[in-house]
């Protein structure tokens, strides 16, 4: 591990002790420094992050929907199909990180 990215042992111990004292258990899979925490992208490409950000900012995910994919695609200068793919793959990438029960296996049964 690059020592410049390592979390000092005292800080690890403090976090573990705090969690224990407050009834939490820790399962650490990733550690980010505080300065880059806002830039965590859940393995998104830059294009996926831009598409998702634009969709949220312009009300694509609102109910009722304020913007449609054609409008967003035009703002990004891409086709409707390209935007749709970016939104779907980006959303899947986020959900796989946020919902730990989702398998990363692409061939998982899709019975609904």
Automatic annotation (TrEMBL):
<feature type="domain" description="HTH bat-type">
    <location>
        <begin position="44"/>
        <end position="94"/>
    </location>
</feature>
<keyword id="KW-0805">Transcription regulation</keyword>
<dbReference type="InterPro" id="IPR007050">
    <property type="entry name" value="HTH_bacterioopsin"/>
</dbReference>
<dbReference type="Pfam" id="PF04967">
    <property type="entry name" value="HTH_10"/>
</dbReference>
<protein>
    <recommendedName>
        <fullName>HTH bat-type domain-containing protein</fullName>
    </recommendedName>
</protein>
<keyword id="KW-0804">Transcription</keyword>
<dbReference type="InterPro" id="IPR036388">
    <property type="entry name" value="WH-like_DNA-bd_sf"/>
</dbReference>
